[in-house]
Design brief:
The structure is a single chain. The protein is an all-alpha fold. The chain folds into two domains: about 120 residues, no CATH class; about 120 residues, no CATH class. The protein is built from eight helices and no strands. The protein starts with a helix and ends in a 14-residue tail after the last helix.
C-alpha cells in the first residue's frame, strides 16, 4: 500500500472514531442540560468535529486544515467566554484562543500558500536546524517553569507538595499546544513532537482524573479522544518526515521565509 492510500484509510479511521466519541460525549451531556446548555453543547460538538478534521488534514499537509482550525478555535473561544460569563471558568482560555490561536490560523494559511499548499497539493514542509531544536527545547523549559508558578497561584487542589501534579498536567500540554501551533503555522515537521506531547500529557491528565473518580464516563471519553489524537499525531510525524525530506539539509541562512 502506498503512502497516499494509507493516509486516506487512516484518516477515515481517525475521523470516524473521533466522530463516534464526540457524539457519545454529546449524548451523555445532552439529557441533563437545559435548553441553553443544549445549544451550547451542540455548538461545542460541532467545534470539536472541526478540530478533528483540522488535525487530520494537517497530518496530510493540506491547507484546508486552517479553515477547520479557525472554526474550531473561534467556537471554543466563544464557548469558554460564555461559560465564564455564566459564572464558570474559561476566560483565560477564551483570550488565548482569540488573540493567539485564531490569528495563527490566518498566518498558517498564508505561510502554507507560500510553500506550495493548494487544493490537494501538500505543503512543502521543512525541519528545524539542530541549533533551533535546542533553542526550542530551552524555550519549552523556560515557559513551562514560568507558567507553572503563575498557574500554581490559582491552584484549587489540596496538594501541599512543592510540585503539584495537577498544575504540571495543566502546564505541559498548554506549552506544547502554543509551540505546536507556532511550528504548524510555519510548516515545521517538529510540530508533531509538540502534538504528541500535548496528547500524552492530556492522556495523563484525564487518566489522573479517572483514577480519582472511576465512575467518570466523561473522563473516559476524553481518554479515548486523546488516544485517537495521539494515533493521528504519530502518523502526522511519520508523514511529515516524508514531506520535509527535501528541506532537511537547508541551513538557517538559506531558510526561506
Amino acid at each position: 500500500m502506498d503512502n497516499k492510500k494509507f493516509n486516506k484509510y487512516f484518516s477515515a479511521f481517525i475521523l470516524a472514531g473521533m466522530t463516534v466519541v464526540t457524539l457519545i460525549a454529546t449524548v451523555l451531556k445532552f439529557g441533563p442540560a437545559d435548553q441553553a446548555g443544549r445549544i451550547l453543547l451542540l455548538v461545542s460538538a460541532f467545534g470539536s468535529l472541526m478540530g478533528v478534521a483540522a488535525t487530520v488534514m494537517s497530518a496530510n499537509g493540506l491547507i484546508i486544515t486552517f479553515l477547520f482550525g479557525f472554526l474550531d478555535v473561534t467556537i471554543y473561544a466563544a464557548v469558554c467566554l460564555v461559560n465564564w460569563m455564566d459564572g464558570g471558568s474559561g476566560l483565560g482560555n477564551s483570550i488565548l484562543h482569540f488573540i493567539y490561536f485564531a490569528p495563527m490560523q490566518i498566518v498558517g494559511f498564508i505561510q502554507w500558500r507560500k510553500r506550495g499548499a493548494k487544493g490537494e497539493e501538500s505543503v512543502q514542509a521543512r525541519r528545524l536546524s539542530p541549533g533551533r531544536r535546542w533553542a526550542l527545547m530551552g524555550i519549552f523549559l523556560l515557559v513551562s517553569v514560568i507558567a507553572y508558578f503563575i498557574i500554581a497561584q490559582f491552584d484549587r487542589s489540596a496538594a501541599t507538595t512543592f510540585i503539584k501534579t495537577a498544575v504540571v498536567l495543566d502546564v505541559l500540554p498548554l506549552v506544547c499546544d502554543i509551540l505546536g501551533q507556532l511550528l504548524m503555522s510555519t510548516a515545521y515537521m517538529e510540530q508533531w513532537v509538540c502534538w504528541i506531547g500535548v496528547n500524552v500529557f492530556s492522556l495523563a491528565m484525564w487518566g489522573n482524573a479517572l483514577a480519582k473518580d472511576p465512575d467518570s464516563s466523561y473522563a473516559l471519553i476524553y481518554i479515548i479522544k486523546y488516544a485517537f489524537y495521539l494515533l493521528n499525531s504519530v502518523n502526522g510525524l511519520r508523514n511529515w518526515l516524508i514531506l520535509s525530506k527535501p528541506a532537511a539539509a537547508i541551513p538557517d541562512s538559506q531558510d526561506p521565509r
